[in-house]
Amino acid sequence: MSERIPQHRYTAELAGQIEAAWQDRWESEGTFHSANPAGPWAEPDDPRLTNGHTMVMDMFPYPSGAGLHVGHPLGFIATDVYARYLRTTGANVLHTMGFDAFGLPAEQYAVQTGQHPRVTTEANMEIYRRQLRRLGMGHERRRSFATIDPDYYRWTQWIFTQIYNSWYDVSAPARLGDGIGRARPISELVAQFESGERAIPDGRAWAGLSPAERAAVLDGYRLAYVSAAPVNWCPGLGTVLSNEEVTADGRSERGNFPVFKRNLSQWMMRITAYADRLVDDLERLDWPEKVKLMQRNWIGRSHGATVTFGPVERVEGGTTGIDVFTTRPDTIFGATFMVVAPEHPVLDEIVPSAWPEGTDPTWTLGEPDPRTAVAAYRTAASRKSDVERQADAKDKTGVFAGAFATNPVTGTKIPVFVGDYVLMGYGTGAIMAVPGQDERDWDFATAYHLPIIRTVQPTPDHPEDKAFTGEGPAINSSIEGLSLDGLGVAEAKERMIEWLEARGAGSRRITYRLRDWLFSRQRYWGEPFPIVWDEDGVAHTVPDDMLPVELPEVPDYSPRTFDPEDAGSSPEAPLARATEWVEVELDLGDGRGLRTYRRETNTMPNWAGSCWYYLRYLDPANDDALVDPAVERYWIGPRPAPVADAPAGATDPGGVDLYVGGVEHAVLHLLYSRFWHKVLFDLGYVSSEEPFRRLINQGMIEAYVYRDDRGFPVPAAEVEEHAGPGGTTYTWNGQAVTQEYGKMGKSLKNVVTPDEMCEQYGADTFRVYEMSMGPLEQYRPWETRAVVGSQRFLQRLWRNVVDEETGEVTVVDVELDAETDKALHRTVDGVRADLEALRTNTAIAKMIELNNHLTKLDAVPRAAVEPLVQMVAPVAPHLAEELWQRLGHTESLAYAPFPEADPAKLVEDVVTCVVQVKGKVRDRLEVPADVDEATLEGLALASPRVQASIDGAPVRKVIVRAPNLVNIVV
RNA sequence: GCCCCCGUAGCCCAACCGGCAGAGGCAGCCCACUUAAAAUGGGUUCAGUGCGGGUUCGAAUCCCGCCGGGGGCACCA
Question: Where would one find the signal peptide in this protein (predicted)?
Fold first, then answer.
């Protein structure tokens, strides 16, 4: 049987041919090459350079081997549409895509398949490249790279050496003079130590220190340093992890393995030095509020005071003080006891050998003396994991330490407790407990019969048996020479801090939740550190001219992993097995000549490569610098105007113009990257203060899952839908199945791939469908059977230009009738605004509308369909190029100027005016668009239908919004 | 427990600064083409905006309180 499909119909097959042909042509012509003002690719004469510039970027993918589904390219298509649109405005547009190819996912896939990570990673990247090409991405291929390329990670290592060889000078003026604090080369700190301008913390003389001692001093300042501290050890992954990679319930973000605290010597990055700038600069960014909030919460800056509670008697004689941090210094009058963390060192000094006279029996754990009780409590606490401690959060437990401190304001003696609801890692590890204004302290006070004093007047409806944490006037807060009574919280805080500072009992203090970034991993597949260790145990950076330090071949690249529950295991770096690589003779050029060193065997986390890749996109062929300064300034330097919604007085921080990616990187990649960028800024390598000026989180495409009566998923593509009186039902192979909504995944049997869609409909149809499903940020369900609507649109557009039977172009060169002309200009105007604002879904709706209008004409005028082809080009670029060519153009339309709307044709001369009586529509009038209010009011009141509605009632008021509306109030 | 986002037709989504609830698509129904079906084309039905209050001449839109869905944080002193 012969198919009765017209020979020249725009079918998936024809689309496939057209698409492949145009992809070849774009590639051979370098259509998407953008122009650089300087550096190896300088093209200073390119006219686009002076015509505006935009950098559009996607979060680059991991070539993990799991395979793409239709959700993955959503953001890529959106940025491609935007970039293609911008090119038609004459702008110089940079849009490319590389690969985040180091790291766990790539390594795990390699381990699973028993191959070297480089082999599988490169194979997967090839698949990705082919798929991206097939989707018609206008990426600039020559700017693409992978983080595993030695030419790339050479610079990742170089940045590490810069960070390592820097320190944060909190008192130096900011680089732009607009604040205090910046990173400086470590050599300047050494000079200060040598000259004596700055004292060494423990008071020794620099000249008298050994190399190892000097190194130890400098490690206290370097922005990258080795520290022995409790870290997150994940036996299941065989590596340590940063705080950001551990979930709230104490498991690894990747793989969901248990994580344990182990004391280990690891590389850290001093991100905490930038905490303030990382918080403050958020308001200069055009980012989703949600992401800003997540970063603010993660950094967790809180303002308060440290207050010393003392004297506490020491067992060995004399007294000591206990410092607490509080955000509520205004409530000190209500501090009736203290609690220190079980790990607090002061406990070693103050716990006496006998319970004080009259100790409440509930305070003692039933132990005969405080030492036994505190020791037992500390042991029990140390056995609890963070997870268990959190799980027990409801019950406040603790034990009396047997000692008393003095409330520095009231002079009252107050008991000191040990309690695990106080964390050693936050503030000072000790708190003043104010049960009246703190729920946790209230719980503790109730459990241990401790006094409660309210120092803020609760609201009248506040329950008697609860802490009051709200705002109100201070009460019970007076002593001789100080009264907070009647003051609001903010004012009371200020007054209190001033009082404390005047007496030396406390001082203003800011604390942060953010901790330094644990930067080393015990994995093979990552960047080696550009660090060698000498025989004294002193670290040295590898000189720039010896970079990159290439990743060696090892007999076994898989990490040593352990039983996920084996908390006692220790990490082993796979690189340590490359003994010939580890032992190395080098002349570091420091005057010490050829010496033997041991290479650092940890590798960097995969965040390292993604921390700065946007900078390399700018100038990927540059061998002399990570990016030419002029190129950086041109593409992502600060713009004259601040971003939308920035507070008054804010300046633009620079950065990538548009960055699109998933929200899952809110506090990982996006925080690390901002940190590195600010270091590079301080050191003068970049002119921008932020990496990403504008961020959009694309939504996910989800899918329906169908399950049979056993609960097993059945292939979603084979499910039939039945509309019935009792609602819609679903069957698979004749048996009833249930529908639920969720993620797309192999095990759920609902995966749809871009390749399938290209096969069945063509890439352009797929692009149009994904873009018309809804706003970019929105989560939405995939529905394959709806894709045909997008295909029909493109087929109708095709048919408006080409005869399906003969393949001939059928457009006519006639003048547009008034209606078509108006529709065209309205569409151009709307589509331009929509594409500009990334509202591609509504842009497509407007194009469909115009196309449907053209379909109804006897013959399609060229003057109408050519602009439509241009407008559709960003979304369906292959089809548009093909039609453009068939319409007689020889050049690609990638740079053809976007159609302009004539403002004169956008105004209607006659509009429909709605006449309401008491807000209800009673009549419609056709009136001139420029009708004046008085005339319109007269016309409305004269309407018989309006008069009938008014029914003789007196008119109280008439609201006129010429020319659209009149509302008569009776 | 606290914070953020979202609820419009059977489904996905529009609706600009508060001003006629509907741009577009899917599905359904009718018609044309076809021996027939598919494909294609043309036409058409469908909601008063999750619920309850309030502000306003006028509310999908602003405010308050619920309900439902999604997400973030959670002894942070």
Answer: none
Minimum CA–C1' distance nucleotide for A247: B73
Closest residue (Cα, C1') to B14: A842
Whether A499 and A352 map to the same domain: the answer is yes
Q: Do A700 and A70 form a contact (C-beta atoms < 8 A)?
A: no
Q: Give the range of the structural domain holding residue A498, as residue numbers without chain letter.
A: 302-511
Q: What is the C-alpha separation between A621 and A152, in angstroms, rounded?
A: 10
Cα torsion angle, A32, A37, A42, A45, sign:
positive
A690 and A713 fall within a common domain: no
| Residue A525 confidence (pLDDT) | 93
Locate A572 and state its tokens: 């082993």
Q: Which of A54, A58, A127 is nearest to A92 (CA)?
A: A54
Residue A967 (CA) to nucleotide B57 (C1'), in angstroms, measures: 7
Q: What is the CATH number of the domain that holds A621?
A: 3.40.50.620
Is the domain of A537 the same as that of A674?
no
The CATH number for A949's domain is 3.10.20.590
Structural element, H or E, at residue A499: helix A489-503
CA distance A493 to A506: 12
Same domain, A384 and A471: yes
In this structure, is the CB of residue A297 within 7 Å of any atom belonging to strand B? Answer: yes
Determine the nucleotide nearest to A917 by Cα–C1' distance.
Answer: B57
CATH number of the domain that residue A858 is part of: 1.10.730.10
Indicate whether A280 belongs to any domain.
no
In a domain, A360, yes or no: yes
Residues A50, A89 contacting (CB under 8 angstroms): no
Q: Are residues A38 and A136 in the same domain?
A: yes
Q: Tell me, yes or no, whether A687 lies in a domain.
A: yes
Q: How far apart are CA A12 and CA A766, in angstroms?
A: 11
As for how many domains chain A has, the answer is 6
Contacts for A197-204 with beta carbons within 8 Å, 24 or more apart? Answer: none
In degrees and rounded to multiples of 5, residue A666 shows phi and psi of -50, -45
- Phi, psi (degrees; rounded to nearest 5) at A618: -70, -35
- Tens-place pLDDT, residues A750-782: 889 999 999 999 999 999 999 999 899 988 889
For residue A963, say if its preceding peptide bond is cis, omega within 30 degrees of 0: yes
A790 C-beta less than 7 Å away from strand B: yes
Is the CB of A99 less than 7 A from some atom of nucleic acid strand B?
A: no
pLDDT in tens, A833-857: 999 999 999 999 999 999 999 998 8
End-to-end CA distance of chain A, in Å?
Answer: 73
Q: What is the DSSP letter of A954?
A: P
Query: Distance between CA A530 and CA A937 in Å, rounded?
Result: 80
HEC assignment per residue over A831-887: HHHHHHCCCHHHHHHHHHHHHHHHHCCCCCEHHHHHHHHHHHCCCCHHHHHHHHHHC
d(CA A135, CA A129): 10
Exposed / middle / buried, residue A278 (Cβ in 10 Å: 0-12, 13-18, 19+): buried
Would you say the ipTM is above 0.90?
yes
Q: Are A381 and A431 part of one and the same domain? A: yes
Give the containing element (helix H, strand E) for A38.
Answer: none
- Contact (CB, 8 A) for A210 and A523: no
Give per-residue pLDDT as tens, A786-825: 999 999 999 999 999 999 888 899 999 999 998 899 999 9
User: Are A173 and A315 members of one domain?
Assistant: no
Q: Is the CB of A918 under 7 A from strand B?
A: yes
Domain-located, residue A357: yes
Q: Long-range contacts of range A473-478, CB-CB < 8 Å, 24 or more positions apart?
A: A474/A330, A474/A333, A476/A333, A476/A334, A477/A330, A477/A333, A478/A333
